[in-house]
Amino acid sequence: MKRIFLFLAAGLACATGMVSCGEDDKEPGNVPLTGITVDREDISENIRYGAVVVSNVVVLPVPANATDVNFKWESQDPSVATAVEDGLGIGKITVLKEGATVVTVRSGSVSAQIPVEGYISVTPLEEIRWSVTLNGELVSQSSLAPGDSLPLPLNEPVTVNATPYPVNANTATADSVTLVWKSSKESVATVDQTGKITVISADTATIITISCEEYKGISASIPVKGVAAGGS
Fold it and tell me: Closest by alpha carbon to 103, among 88, 85, 87?
């Protein structure tokens, strides 16, 4: 009789959930995480002007009702891009400089990766083009025959129009390039930074140079010579 009582008590405990009994020993409501989805396959940002670019990435658990989910963010190379949690299911990825890295979001043993790249878009300067207009007529444009000089009226300021080519040439830190004007002999001809040339003496030709601060080695040279009224 005592054995029958113990058997019945054990069966009752199993039925009421007081002890583990075979397949029923799993925690009720526990749904394991099997995957992580992200709304960005990769991140590629143009890092011009030294500014950082921030991207928000939304992550979702798979299945959606997975329990015990705790997302953690990390970057393979924090010097290129950092990754931190910025709210439930959102990661903030900040691209800092040129380079490539991988951002990983994980929860337990499950993870997802996001390739991240920082780059600088630059349109390089190829050449400097110039033209001169006198009395409404185009006098010269971008080049002169070897040994020739550009005749300019004495003591009358003439503006040379100089443009970079391509016109949208830029640098990693600026939208446009900076042109610099210089006279090889200011006692003969002067030039300001707007390209206004004043020839003072007709004795010798003077070289006016247009260069670019950001692209060393690219310049344009204009030999100029003063011409008295009615002269050539």
Answer: 85
Environment class of 226 (CB within 10 Å of its CB; exposed 0-12, middle 13-18, buried 19+): buried
Give the strand pairing for 43-46 and 110-119: parallel
For residue range 61-81, list pLDDT tens digits in order. 999 999 989 999 999 999 999
- Beta strand 137-141 with 127-134 is antiparallel
Q: Which residues pair with 190 in a beta bridge?
A: 198
Report how far residue 121's alpha carbon sits from residue 28's, in angstroms, rounded to the nearest whole number. Answer: 55
Residue type, 214: E
CB 151 within 8 A of CB 227: yes
As a 3-state breakdown, the chain gives helix, strand, coil percent values, each rounded to 5, of 10, 45, 45
CB–CB of 107/100 below 8 Å? no
* Cβ proximity of 137 and 181 under 8 Å: no
List the one residue out of 197, 201, 200, 206 whose CA is nearest residue 224.
206
Tens-place pLDDT, residues 133-155:
887 778 777 878 888 888 899 99
Backbone torsions φ then ψ of 60, nearest 5 degrees: -135, 140
| Contact call for residues 204 and 230 (beta carbons, < 8 A) | no
DSSP 63: S
**Cβ atoms of 201 and 226 closer than 8 Å:** yes
Tell me which of 82 and 17 has the higher pLDDT. Answer: 82
Reading the block at residue 154, the tokens are: 């004495």
